[in-house]
Design brief:
Blueprint (H helix, E strand, L loop, with lengths): L2 E4 L6 H11 L3 E4 L11 H4 L9 E4 L2 E4 L1 H12 L8 H31 L7 H24 L11 H10 L12 H11 L2 H8 L4
Parallel strand pairs: 1-2
Antiparallel strand pairs: 1-3, 3-4
Helix pairs in contact: 1-3, 1-6, 1-8, 4-5, 4-6, 5-7, 6-7
This protein binds glutathione.
């Protein structure tokens, strides 16, 4: 397989870099920055007309959407991270879409308004609303992991665990999973994997 990942490691491209490391795929990394100096330049818009990173060239197929890229990479590469059946494929897609729709936005808002933005620019109301929004999905995640052997699908670490933990990653400076032992253990195990450490080292933070 010939894979090129576009996007700096300090972006959602980290998800795809992590997946390539997990899957043992050789890849070329083109660290496109976001904004006018990178993702909004005409040559990059020809790769991803949305003007965002990541994007990936996988055997000549140009893709964007970090979690869709990962599902595709896992299925193409095969092995234990990939679905073993159509049913597992459905569940891995379900969890990935769930992470994007139920977790990612609010988790990113927590990160920005609790940690990343300068204090004067933080919005306490947005932070409070995001914490409230996350209560239900985090409880769902806790309940599922606690009753399914600590994994999302198939009783093993799969691309679904990678995709969802990569969204929970936005909560790394918060205490929102401290009262959720199954989520906490699952997240720590996922992000402590050698492939994760290798990819996250590319971020330099
Ligand atoms: N849903 C997309 C989101 C991509 C995205 O928003 N990427 C950010 C960087 S993490 C970006 O490129 N922002 C720059 C911009 O929107 O101009 C994915 O998961 O790949």
């Amino acid at each position: 397989m010939k894979v090129t990942i576009y996007g700096i490691a300090k972006s959602r491209a980290i998800r795809n870099l992590w997946a390539c490391e997990e899957l043992g795929l050789p890849y070329t990394h083109v660290p496109v920055v976001y904004g006018p100096e990178g993702s909004r330049k005409p040559d990059f818009l020809a790769i991803n007309p949305n003007g965002r990173v990541p994007a990936a060239d996988i055997d000549g197929v140009m893709m964007w959407e970090s979690l869709a890229i990962n599902l595709h990479l896992a299925k193409k590469a095969g092995g234990s991270l990939a679905p073993e059946s159509l049913d597992e494929d459905g569940l891995m897609t379900m969890w990935s879409m769930w992470a994007l729709t139920e977790v990612e936005g609010a988790a990113l808002a927590v990160l920005m308004n609790q940690t990343v933005k300068p204090e004067a620019e933080r919005d306490a109301a947005v932070l409070a609303k995001s914490i409230e929004t996350l209560k239900a999905p985090l409880a769902v995640l806790e309940g599922h992991l606690a009753s399914h052997g600590g994994y999302l699908v198939g009783n093993r670490f799969t691309i679904a665990d990678l995709n969802v933990s990569a969204c929970v990653y936005y909560l790394r400076y918060s205490n929102l999973v401290d009262d959720k032992p199954a989520v906490k253990a699952w997240y720590q195990a996922a992000t402590s994997r050698p492939a994760a450490k290798k990819a996250f080292a590319l971020r330099g933070d």
